[in-house]
Write a structure and sequence with these properties.
The protein has 322 residues and is an alpha/beta fold. The chain has a single domain, classed as Arginase, Chain A. An eight-stranded parallel beta sheet has the order 3-2-4-9-8-5-6-7, sandwiched between helices. Strands 1-10 form a two-stranded antiparallel ribbon. Helix 4 runs parallel beside helix 5. The longest helix is centred in the N-terminal third of the chain and has 20 residues. The chain starts with a strand and ends in a 7-residue tail after the last strand. The relative contact order is 0.18.
Length: 322
C-alpha cells in the first residue's frame, strides 16, 4: 500500500512490538530463507511499525544453535531431513518466543522457513498456559503442513509443523517442554490449495478447520474470515497469525521456494490483514518462507512488509471496527 494512514489514535498509548529474526532454512527444500529477516528489515518493517505509533524493539537475529539429536524412533528419524538442526532450532526458538511473550508486547518472528513455527507457537503456548489465555492459530498458507514422518513425500520438516504442534506422537521428541501445544479445534488453516492425500485424511480426523481457495472463490474472504473471527468474540484469546509468503499468488510474490498457482490476490491478502487487525485479538505473528534469492528486486519482501502494516493498523481512511 502506498497511502499510509491509521495506526493508533493519538490519545492511546502506543503498544510495543518485539521483532526477532530467525534465519533458518534447514526445514525447506530450497536454500535462501535464512536471508528473509534481513530482507524484511531492508523493506522497512521496523520503520513502518514505528510510523504507525508502535514502540519497536528489534532483538536482532538468533544464532544457529548446535545440532541436537532427539530420542526419536529410527524409522521416523530417517524420514526427517536435517532432524538434529530442526530439533535445535525448535527448542531454541521455543525459549526465545516464550521470553518475548512473557516480556509483553506483540512478538513478530521473521523467518526463515515454516518449521520455525514449531518453536514460536510452542513458546507462545507456554505463556498462554501461564496467563490463562486460549491460544488460537490462523495459518495463512498454500499448504496444510500437516504431514508426519510416516506420510511426508519430501522429508522437509516445514511440512510437518502443524502435525507437531497438534500432538503427532512420532515428533514429540523434538520438544524440550510441554507437548502437545495446540488443540486441533483451535487451528484454522486459510487459503490452502495444496494438500497431500494423507494430510487430507489426518486433517479430517483431527477436526481441523480448513478454508481452501475454492471456498474463498465461492464465498469470498469477508464471509469466511468473519465466521472464524466471530467465533472468538467474548473468549480470552491470544491469536497467533502465521503468514507464509506462498499464501499469495506467485505472480505477486515470487520470492518463495514453495509457490502454488491460484493464491490470494493483493486485495484479498490486505483484507485478511485488515480484518484481523479490526478484531483486536492479534497476539503474535510469524512471517515465513521469504527467499530473497528467488525474489525480483524485493517485490515479495515489500509486499509482506505492506501486509504486516495492514495487520498492525495501516489503513487508507480511519475506520471504526464493525
Amino acid at each position: 500500500m502506498t497511502i499510509a494512514s491509521g495506526g493508533f489514535p493519538r490519545d492511546v498509548r502506543p503498544a510495543r512490538v518485539s521483532i526477532l529474526g530467525i534465519p533458518s532454512e534447514k526445514g525447506a527444500g530450497t536454500a535462501g530463507t535464512l536471508m528473509g529477516p534481513a530482507a524484511m528489515r531492508t523493506a522497512g518493517l521496523p520503520a513502518l511499525l514505528t510510523e504507525l505509533g508502535y514502540i519497536v524493539d528489534d532483538h536482532g537475529d538468533m544464532l544457529q544453535p548446535a545440532p541436537v539429536t532427539p530420542a526419536m524412533a529410527a524409522d521416523a528419524a530417517a524420514r526427517c531431513l536435517n532432524l538434529p538442526e530442526i530439533t535445535a532450532w525448535t527448542r531454541a526458538i521455543d525459549a526465545e518466543a516464550y521470553r518475548l511473550a512473557r516480556d509483553g508486547g506483540v512478538p513478530v518472528f521473521l523467518g526463515g522457513d515454516h518449521s520455525l513455527s514449531m518453536g514460536t507457537i510452542a513458546g507462545v503456548a507456554r505463556r498462554c498456559a501461564e496467563t490463562g489465555k486460549e491460544l488460537v492459530v490462523l495459518w495463512l498458507d498454500a499448504h496444510a503442513d500437516y504431514n508426519t514422518p510416516a506420510t511426508t513425500p519430501s522429508g522437509n520438516m516445514h511440512g510437518m509443523s502443524l502435525a507437531y504442534l497438534c500432538g503427532e506422537a512420532s515428533l514429540a521428541p523434538l520438544a524440550a517442554t510441554a507437548f502437545p501445544l495446540l488443540k486441533p479445534e483451535n487451528l484454522h488453516i486459510f487459503g490452502v490449495r495444496s494438500v497431500d492425500r494423507d494430510e487430507r485424511r489426518a486433517l479430517h480426523e483431527a477436526g481441523v478447520d480448513v478454508t481452501d481457495m475454492r471456498l474463498i472463490d465461492e464465498e469470498g474472504v469477508p464471509v469466511l474470515l468473519r465466521r472464524i473471527l466471530g467465533e472468538l468474540k467474548g473468549r480470552n484469546v491470544h491469536l497467533h497469525v502465521s503468514l507464509d509468503a506462498d499464501f499469495l499468488d506467485p505472480s505477486l510474490a515470487p520470492g518463495t521456494g514453495t509457490t502454488v498457482l491460484g493464491g490470494t490476490t493483493y486485495r484479498e491478502a490486505h483484507l485478511v490483514m485488515e480484518m484481523i487487525h479490526d478484531c483486536g485479538l492479534l497476539g503474535s505473528l510469524d512471517i515465513v518462507e521469504l527467499n530473497p534469492f528467488l525474489d525480483e528486486r524485493g517485490r515479495t519482501a515489500k509486499l509482506l512488509c505492506d501486509l504486516a502494516g495492514s495487520l498492525f493498523g495501516l489503513t487508507v481512511l480511519h475506520r471504526q471496527p464493525a
